[in-house]
Predict the structure.
Amino acid sequence: MPNLRDIKKRINSVESTKQITRTMEMVATAKIRRATERIVASTPYAMAMVEVLEAIANRSAAPASPLLKVRTPIRRIALIVVTSDRGLAGGFNSNVLRAADKFIAAKRAEGIECDIVACGKKAIGYFKYRKLPVALAFRDQSADPQISQAREIATMAIDSFIKEKVDQVVVFYNHAKNVADQVVTSDVILPVEKVEYHEIGEEEATTVHLDESAKAAAAATSALMAEAKSSSRGVTSAGEAQGDFDYEPGADEVLDALLPSYVETRIFYALLDSAAGEQGARRKAMKSATDNATEMVSTLTRIFNRARQGAITTEITEIVGGAAALEEE
Amino acid sequence: MAEQPMVCDIVTPSGMLFSGEAEYVAVPAAEGEIGFLYKCAPFMSTLKRGTVRIKEVMAAEAAQVFAVDGGYVEVDGYKVVVLASHALDVKDVDVAVAQERIATNEKRLAELDADDSRAVFIRQEIEWQQFLVTLIENKSA
């Protein structure tokens, strides 16, 4: 027979855990909205940049930027791993880290070494524990990524790529497919391949998709999104008349100057995407924790009631038995 | 005096820094500063580190000034789009913060080899912050 007081204690503790997880769930929900707003704010920039790149790439016959050159064989890869600073987000971090680890192991088997750029405390801790050297580490920014962080990573990546210290730059991050789902994504960001222009178009499509689901979740952001959309459309209309543009210093030079910014934008986008995904994953994890706690409380309450009823029944039986014994005398 | 205003946007990855109607826009283009009025020829150029000046329509005050660190500009006569990864309203520049950043970055730079790929960014960052500081000093002088 379980002790009544012990069960009561457990109910109370599960109850207070539930309060915490429910609060965290609500906080994450509010933060998803903010993270989505940031993605929306960055969209006009990314779109305008892709358009210009496309226009120039179509114009110039053979772009000769070193950032476009595919190198074979690949001897060294720079790996950018984007995770969060905080845990309690379900499989969010471990999914990315596992994918990155598998990638490193596979490449190592081929004789390719990897330089690691770790974004987020979880990635830093993981690679430190695994005793893998980290070239560059960022912490305390995963919830609120800054462009300067993306710039620092991009500048390092581009410099080591041009100096042939690395032959490829790959980024691993959680793509926020919608508010609830995150997909571990790996993108080759250097060398910039021609196909990637279109791939970015697809990414834009997914961004829009994300916006739509967020709209359903939070109507308040819809006005903001409409504004961002109209402004990005404005940028588009400016880009339509590209045929007779005067380029200064020249189309190829403009392309050379823009490619680093493009790389920077892609990294920034990965950071923002991961930040949105983090909140989505945390909300999901906290929601299931809250649900579990609710279920546990109801099971425990049932056990508690049964135990209490059992104790009462025993007492009554004892009293009745005692009275009967007295009567017999 | 332009008959009609142009639309001018300064777009950064973290959002629109400026969006409005302008009478005159000057940018630090790759081959020297260049200004745009309504109905100028379509033009596209990369930008250097410098300031973008925007004279708004009916603005009582002098032109609005933004500091940019590279990027590009696209003009079609009716609309000026400035894309800048680093851009800042000069009014928002804080000299104390900039100087503090220079100091911390110089410390970081001292710890790295000259050949280290990480150093490139730090050097750029120092130059950018120094540019902001001189900008403010020249203005107040």
